[in-house]
Hints:
Elements: E1 4-8, H1 15-24, E2 28-31, H2 32-38, H3 45-54, H4 67-76, H5 79-101, E3 108-111, E4 126-131, H6 134-145, H7 149-158, H8 162-168, E5 171-174, H9 179-201
Parallel strand pairs: 1-3, 1-4, 2-3, 4-5
Amino acid sequence: MDFVVGLTGGIGSGKSAASAWFESQGIVVVDADIVAREVVQKGQAALDQIQQAFGDWVLLPDGELNRRALREHIFKVPEARKTLEHITHPAIRNSIIQQLAQAKSAYAILVSPLLFETNQHELTQRTLLIDASEELQIQRASQRDGQNADQIKTIIAAQMPRIEKQRMADDIVLNDGYLDHLYQHLMPLHKQYLSFAHESSI
Length: 202
């Protein structure tokens, strides 16, 4: 794949709605969150490495990863997160590269909430930020996930600051809550990306 657009945004920004729209235009979307789940499934090398690093307690009786136990452990033992990321990040990156290479659309989208934080933007030729005010992020995420405002604020605080993402992104779409408005902004970008992809393939 010659041309890849990295799509990102904070919790409740609307990046899922945006990636679904690109998919509806026939563009292959590789979702880093889905890849992150795939690489730790039963039978995958990363799961064996996690078991070796942490112990058998990370596995459920059926051999799958005990996500809840691992999440609680990382919360209690912060340095354990580095150990886990040292195992999972290279596996995620390799899988993303493979899936993007197999994409058969004019260009591909890599959607990732941690596009800049994990340097996944290095795998892209262009980056698109779906942006929203913190007030809207909290409202949407609480309606969708049933979390309270304080929990969502904690998640937002742990992510790269919005202003920093705005500084790093090539393209920014402000998602004010109306899907029609979002799609109206995405269409000219889609045409632009098709043009860029065509130029890069010549």
